[in-house]
Write a structure and sequence with these properties.
Layout lengths: L1 H8 L14 E4 L2 E5 H4 L5 H10 L3
Helix pairs in contact: 1-3
């Protein structure tokens, strides 16, 4: 997933293992997606779109 995001956005992506199915996406310190809040697990394409939409 990190490789896909980097390839599509030219932004360094880090995957940090969490607990209990937590999957948060943070861009420049801002939480932009939280699986625990939405119940959805985003696919790589969705995360790349979030990064690009934020101009990161």
């Amino acid at each position: 997933m990190a490789e896909y995001i980097q390839r599509k956005t030219d932004v360094e992506a880090k995957l940090i293992e969490g607990d209990h199915g937590v999957f948060d996406v943070v861009i420049d310190g801002e939480l932009v997606h939280s699986r625990s809040k939405t119940g959805n697990f985003p696919v790589s394409r969705d995360i790349a779109r979030l990064v690009l939409s934020r101009g990161a």
